[in-house]
Each structure stands twice: as structure tokens, then as C-alpha cells.
Amino acid sequence: MKLAKILKIALNMVRANKLRSWLTIIGVIIGIASVMAIVTTGEYFQEQVTETLEGLGGDTITIVASVPFEIYSEEDMEYEENSEEIPGESGATIAGTGEGPENFTSEPMEIEPETEAALTRKDVFVLRSIPAVEYVNVNVQTGAQLKFGSESTYVWVNGVDPGVWPHITKKKIGEGRMLAPGDRAVVVISSELAKGTFEKEVRLNQMIPLNGKSYRVVGILAKDGGLLGGMGGLFGSSVYMPYQEVYSLQNNEEDLSEREQDVYDNIEIKLHDEADYDAALQEIERKLRLARRVTEDKQDFYVSSSKETIESTQKLINGLTSFLAFIAGISLLVGSTGIANTMFTSVLEKTKEIGIMKAIGAKNSDIMMIFLCNAAMISLVGGMIGILLGTAAVQLILFFISVKMNVPFEFALSLKGTVIATLVSIAVGLIAGLVPAKNASELKPVDALRYE
């Protein structure tokens, strides 16, 4: 029997029982729409979170000074306790204290840092000597009061190397220019600070006072895009300036004298594109330990990588999406049960017709293909409608979220989710219709013709 004839018979079977077919299709629609919506939403939020994290320095390595702590073993603590409890000749005093045992109280042990750690220009020279390192940027951070007209606000100032920062940052310039080597008394500000903080908009080339010192605005950063774009301003600095200028913003003369020695709050590193990431991290730690004359146990700095944070976040979102998709997929099991029930009923109704087709020469494979195509049509129609409804539901959710967060709406469609949903819908129909189709193909013509 030709394929066109098989498809025509299967389509007529679907049309003959419209109500039953549509009730079965609705079960498939609910399952496919749920899976489609969850997979699309999960992929979209994964892209947005990844974009946000990368905007905060996704491919950079950050080094901060960390103070090592002296950790005592149990044997050391027991030894110190025993040495303090050795009685004097009179048996009434504690060695080295001059106090009686009745006046002795056990104070909780406080673990204090050994020395004050700091990142300096020497560390920058060491990092620049590593072949895998392309850019080294220093950060000096502080808070400052910004007055604009009659209004004032407290802003976070990040001092950067003007020759390196434009190459290492993920932020884009909206108006004006980035910082450049040789800049003095100039700043680049965020879009939120320029347009959303004061009644009047801060414009290019205007002078803004920070802690009483005036700085000219040479650039305004572009607003981060995407659903989570506005969150970038919460974690980033509002004002960027050459790091040498930040030292003069300190109000405390003692702090100022310490910072004049080129002490940095953290150092950012960008590797060459072809560099081995893991090997470079190990080389950075090894060379810094040698330069700072510390061992691994006494290490007074910490190397953090945003790449690891991004990967762990992606795994978390993928795991959560897969779990929710699995839960939603249970409704597909219910839909497949409906398809199987419809197919068994169709076999009973078409028993006599099956006998006639076999009597005039139809093969078992032809009968089986007819019922399999019938099941596939029901599941495919349900799958296509489910994909459309699931996609529409996602757009509706994202639209309301964008309105609430006051960000532009972005259409989201998961190609992977669409392909998976289509294949799953067909597979569900074929699997659910396999047993009824096999039963129909194995009917004997004589028994089928005598069936009432």
C-alpha cells in the first residue's frame, strides 16, 4: 500500500472522531506547552544571568589581599594550657602571672592576623612578567559625596588604570569617550548616575564635585541591555577615574599617606585568548607567592575567577530547568496514556474494516503503519499547538517582568526547546500507538470480518 494512501486513511480516522481526537490532543498540548515554556524560560534566564556576570568581568581574574590567620593545632593549644597552669614553688600562683588559681579565668582565644597584607606596584610588575597575562588593571576604590546643583548623593568611586581599563572592561561607552592614558581630573560615569539620580541630567564636559574637588565628565557609559541589565549598576561603580586621582579623595590624612605608596584594593587580570586558563591561575599564584615570600599555608592574597562563578551558575540553572522540565514531562505521560486509549478504541471500532483490507490484500505492515500514522498525527498536532501556546506564555511572562523592571521587552525563543518538543511529541504518539497498531496488524481476516 502506498504511503499517500496510508496517510489518507489515517487522516480520515482522525476526522471520523473529532471530539475524541481533540480531547486526546489537549492532553498532548498541555504537556508540550509546559515543557516548552520551562525550557525556553530556563535558557533565557541563563543567557541573561551569564551576560550580567560577564558584564561585571566574566573573563577576568581578580586578586585581592587577604590577611593570613594563625591556626593552632590541638597539641599546641594543650601545650600552652599546660604551661600556663604550672604552679610556682608555693603552689598558689600561676607561672608568669602572679595571680592565684582562684582568680584565673579562661578567656576565649582570639585569632588575629599576623601582618597587614596589601597589593602594591611590585605585584603588578610580577603579574606583567607572566606570558599568559595580556592586561593588568589596578583598582583603588572609595566612597565620595557628589553634589550637583542643590542635590547631593553618595557614590562609589573606582580608580582604574586609564591605559588598561578600556581594554579589560565589558562596559560600553554611550556618550563621549573612555578614559585615556595621561587623563587627570576627569571621570566616566554610569548611565544611571547621569540620567536617573538627579532632577537635571548630568551631561558631557560638565564639572561635578567629589568631596569638594571638581572633575570633568568625559564619558557616560551605555545602559546594560537585557532583562537583568539594570542590575549591573547595583554591583558596578557609579564613577570611574584614573586611580591616582582617588588617593586625593581620602579625607583622612593617615589613609592618604598610606595610599600614596601605590597600594591597591584589588588587581584585575585579563589573559590572552589562547592562554591555558587553569595553568595561568597556578602560575599567577606561584609567582606571587615567590615575590611576596609566603608559602601556600601563609598566602596573604586571594585569586578569584569569575569564570568559575559563571560555570557554576549555568550548571545550577541547567539543573533546575531539567528538574522542572521533568516534572512538566509527567503531563506528557498522561497525554500518551490518552493516545493509547484512543488507539485501542479505534482498533475495536475498525476491526471489521481491518478484516476487509486484509481480505483484499493489505499486509500486516500496512495496517500497522495506518494506526501508527494516526497516533503520530494526533501527537504532532498537539505538539505544534503546544509549542505555540508555550512560546506565547513565555512572551507574556517576560512582557510583564519587563514592564515591572522598566526594561525593554525581548522576544525569547528556544530553538533547542522547539526541536525537542517536536521530536518528543512525535515519539510519544508513536510509542503510545505501537501496541494498539501491533494488535491491529495481527488480527486474522476471518476473525475480523466476523467481529460485531
UniProtKB/TrEMBL annotation:
Residues 21-286 form the MacB-like periplasmic core domain. Keywords: Cell membrane, Membrane, Transmembrane, Transmembrane helix. InterPro entries: ABC3_permease_C (IPR003838), MacB_PCD (IPR025857), Macrolide_Exporter_MacB (IPR050250). Residues 326-443 form the ABC3 transporter permease C-terminal domain. One of its GO terms (cellular component) is plasma membrane. Belongs to the ABC-4 integral membrane protein family. This is ABC transporter permease. It comes from Methanosarcina mazei (Methanosarcina frisia).
